[in-house]
Every structure is written in C-alpha cells, then in structure tokens.
Amino acid sequence: MSDLTKFEIKDFKIGQNLYIEASAGTGKTYTIELLVEKMLEEKISLPEILIVTFTEKATGELRDRIRCKIEDCINIYENNINKKNIFISALREIGNAQIYTIHSFCQSVLKNYAFETKSSINLEVEKGNEIDNILDKYIRDVWIKEEGFENLIIDNLKLILKNVVNNYLLYYDLKIEENGTSDEEKFALKHFQEIISEWQKYKKDNNLITFTDMINLVHEKIRDNKNTSLVECLRNSYRYAIIDEFQDTNQKQWDIFSKIFLNSNRNNIVVVGTVYICFPRSRNRCL
C-alpha cells in the first residue's frame, strides 16, 4: 500500500471512486462528515447519499454527527446565502438521510422495490430463535437414535449448525473440514444439508425471511443481467455511496455495491476501512 497518499478533503472531486484507509481513532467519522459536506456543496442532496456502516448504534451516531456538521455549516456560511441555503435544505432532510447497516439497507430495497425484486410484502423478519426449534426437534426425535450421539456436546453442536445455517447461503466459500477437530464438527458435516432443507421449508411455510436471506435476494436481483430495473432504480435514487467499516464487508455485499456504484458512469462510491482490507471467510481476497 505504498502508493497510498494522505487524504485531503480539498483534493476530493465529485465523480471519484475512492478508498480511504482509516483505523479506529484516526478521525474516520470526521472524514465521512467532510465527504458529506463536500457532496452537499456540490448540489448532491442528502437523500442521494447512501451511507452504510456496520452496526445500528453506528448509524445513529453517524446521523447525529452529520446533523451537527450541517448545523455548523449553516453558522459558518452565515454571510454566504447560497451555501447557507444548501445546508438549511439538508437539515430539513436529515430525517430522510439514507444511513443503514447492510441488513437494513437490503430490507429497505426489498420493501421499496418489491415489484423490481419480485419479493412478497407479507414476509416477516425471523426473530432469530426459530432455528432452535428445528434443531431441538432433530436432536430429540431423530439424531438421538444415532450411535455415538449421546457422547456429543449438544450446545457445541447447536452452535456449529446455527453458524452453518447462517453462513451457508451468505458466503460462496463455506467450508467444513472433512476431518474436523471435534466430533460435533464431523456430525455437522454429515447432517447440515438436511437442516438447511428443513429450515428453508419452515421459512416458506411461515412466510419468514432472515437478514441473510435479504442479502441473498438483493444480491440475486442486483446481479441478474436479464433484469436491470432494480439497478437502474437504485442508481437513480443514490448518486454516491459511502461504505464505512469496509473491512467487515464480505464478497456478496461488495458485489451489490460495486454493481450499483462502481460499474456505472454516473454513480460513485467511497469505501472507508482499516489498513488491511479483506473479505470475511475468504481472507485471501483483498483490495
């Protein structure tokens, strides 16, 4: 990364795609504030700026920081009526600021573009504990009959299988080692497909969707070259994307953002992350 240069907001030009290396405590959030300020000055409205960060807490903090920054700009440009009006308009739109986690962003896409994604408006978000009921049923009624099952640590087995269910559809490169380090891992390798099949059926029968499903569905629709309506709608909605905590972005999530913003002549993206940028579950895939 020797070719990286120090970021200066004065050098940032609208139309650039940018990677900003920023570790914790280096003013990362302040840099995002400056980027938003610059975009607003260049007549990009606040709702046209998509900001994605890692946690719900961080979305709230970013919204507060951007609101304060806009208020500061209103005071700074007290004698510049044109610029002052830009930030007054932005302050009025702070409630419409598009600040999300990756999960809430995908949820909003499925809700706001139900026709383009062909998604049901009647789906409910799975609360996170229904998979336990399925695992308990298999443990109680099916697997207890298998030789050696009584020697397994049930809590460990459930944790492994829940991670498999959550990750199987999210990452391309799910790998469970054939020669796992524990009997629970070996058992999970043998049975995870039946659990996934049962889980998919359960969600379909009960009109449920998980946050992982949301990412998968948005990814599928975004990458469908035969139907570009969703991509065009999102490109028309968002002029710029700012992806915070980019080191926590996996390949499938990056596929979504790059398709919308990087592979476009009129949209752009800024990613902000720590020094070593890789995709989870595939650490050899770096920018």
Cα shape: elongated
Q: Low-confidence stretches at least 5 residues in length (pLDDT < 50)?
A: 169-175, 277-287
Based on CA atoms alone, the radius of gyration comes out at 22 Å
Helix content: 40-55%
By DSSP (H or I, 4+ residues per run), the number of helices equals: 11
**Domain tally:** 2
Biggest sheet record = 5 strands, parallel
Describe, in plain words, how this protein is organized in 3D.
With 287 residues, the chain is an alpha/beta fold. The protein folds into two domains: 9-120 and 225-286, P-loop containing nucleotide triphosphate hydrolases (Rossmann fold); 124-206. Helices cover 51% and strands 12% of the residues. It contains eleven helices and nine strands. The protein has helices at 28-41, 56-76, 81-92, 102-112, 114-117, 130-141, 154-168, 183-205, 211-222, 229-237, 251-262; strands spanning 18-21, 49-53, 98-101, 124-125, 208-209, 240-243, 268-273, 278-279, 282-286. The strands form three sheets. Strands 1-7-6-2-3 form a five-stranded parallel beta sheet, sandwiched between helices. A two-stranded parallel ribbon has the order 4-5. It has a two-stranded antiparallel sheet with strand order 8-9. A hairpin with a 2-residue loop joins β8 (278-279) and β9. α1 packs across α2 (56-76), α2 (56-76) runs antiparallel to α3 (81-92) and α7 crosses α8 (183-205). The longest helix is centred in the C-terminal third of the chain and has 23 residues, at 183-205.
